[in-house]
Amino acid sequence: MKTSAQKREFSLNVNGVPRNIRAYPAERLLDVLRYLGLTGTKEGCGEGECGACSVLVDGRLVVSCLMPVAQAEGAKLLTIEGVTGNQRFRSLQETFAEGGGAQCGICTPGMILAGGHLLERNPAPTIEEIREALSGNLCRCTGYLQIFEAVAEAARRCAGT
After folding, report:
1. In a domain, 31, yes or no
2. Which residues of 130-145 are buried (b: 16+ CB within 10 A; e: fewer)?
3. Residue 9: beta bridge partners?
4. Packing angle between helix 108-121 and helix 145-159, nearest 10 degrees?
5. Nearest Cα to 137, choosing from 159, 115, 160, 161?
6. What are phi and psi of 139, to 5 degrees?
7. Which of 85, 95, 151, 157 has the least CB density, counted as fewest CB within 10 Å?
8. How far apart are CA 66 and CA 41, in angstroms?
9. CA–CA gap between residue 117 and residue 109 (Å, rounded)
């Protein structure tokens, strides 16, 4: 009989690549991703408060430091390393770099994933909607204005204006 203290096999689809991993069921998804070499997902607080470890799991934005890998069994995961083929995410990466939205880099992957998640659902958000969508992500460097403006600019670029 398997207990939660024993490692077992899990199947995940990470950035479009099927992966079979061996881990403890309660092991944090954040740690599993980093063991896979996906170090773009950052640990900020380890308590689900800062959003630095945000990833998309079956299209939902989640903090991977609180999600046990067992909950991700069979899921499609998208990390910052997997966003390059998506125009919205590419635009976000560009506008963050151009407008000073990325400074120390700890919060940037989570901010870009949260911003991209917003733009997938709402391609023309207001600044207030951007502020709300990114409210689960903390930044200690920018004061947020550059981040909000970067998301707004990415939305404009994706709309072709």
Report:
1. yes
2. beebbeebbbebbebe
3. 22
4. 40
5. 115
6. -135, 135
7. 85
8. 13
9. 12
> Which pLDDT tens digit goes with each residue over 12-32?
999 999 999 999 999 999 999
- Whether 2 is covered by a domain: the verdict is no
Domain C-terminal end among 42, 66, 82: 82
Domain assignment present for 129: yes
CATH assignment at residue 121? 1.10.150.120
Cα of 126 vs its chain's centroid, Å: 21
Closest CA to 26 of 62, 60, 69, 58: 69
Q: What DSSP character marks residue 11? A: E
pLDDT per residue of the chain (161 residues) written in tens, 0 to 9: 455 589 999 999 999 999 999 999 999 999 999 999 999 999 999 999 999 999 999 999 999 999 999 999 999 999 999 998 888 899 999 999 998 888 888 999 999 999 999 999 999 999 999 999 999 999 988 889 999 999 999 999 999 85
